[in-house]
Specification:
The chain is of the alpha/beta class and about 180 residues long. It contains six helices and seven strands.
């Protein structure tokens, strides 16, 4: 079974004030988390300031640049899934989750049983990422991915395995820069 790691990192980070793919080591860290968690095949979707972010992508990681990045996460997810046609499943992760470790990826990846797999990490019961999307779901997920809504609506309507990871991380995305003096 082939599960491809798919990192979404295309946004401008308007609330953050900069594209999150360019923040600290988040891009490299997220790609490393995918590899260390069990996804040696990885693709990153870039958009805002793609050329600056591309130089940070390690060798061996495929890059998809979405021209529709300003439309939101949905466009990134659609373009990323379209690039993975030969895989049984995609493990979707977001660049702005710097506290999510490889162990969370490994736990969700363990739910992969074939192209019909559907699972997502939860953090103290709160849905989060990574999300495992079996190939059988890709067309419907892509059709429903719109604006900043990726697979959320699809996942809410279909049975999936919830994989608790709250003992490993908070799973909170980082939308704003820390205030001066904060040491997160």
């Amino acid at each position: 079974m082939t599960v491809h790691g798919l990192l979404l990192a295309a946004g401008a980070g308007s609330r953050y004030g900069a594209p999150k793919a360019l923040v600290d080591d988040w891009l490299v860290r997220a790609l490393t988390v995918l590899a260390d968690g069990g996804c040696p095949e990885r693709t990153v979707v870039l958009g805002a300031q793609a050329e600056q972010a591309r130089v940070l992508v390690p060798e061996g990681v495929a890059v998809v640049v979405t021209g529709d990045w300003a439309q939101g996460l949905g466009a990134s997810l659609r373009d990323g899934l379209a690039a993975l046609s030969d895989s049984d499943a995609a493990l979707v992760h977001l660049v702005d989750l710097p506290d999510v470790p490889a162990a969370a990826v490994a736990r969700v990846l363990a739910a992969a049983t074939g192209p019909g797999s559907l699972a997502r990490a939860t953090y103290d019961g709160r849905p989060g990422h990574p999300v495992l999307l079996g190939h059988d779901h890709w067309a419907a997920v892509a059709a429903g991915a719109d604006g900043d809504r990726g697979a959320r609506d699809y996942l809410a309507k279909h049975p999936l395995e919830l994989v608790e990871c709250g003992d490993l991380a908070t799973g909170h995305d980082v939308d704003q820069r820390p205030a001066r003096g904060d040491h997160a």
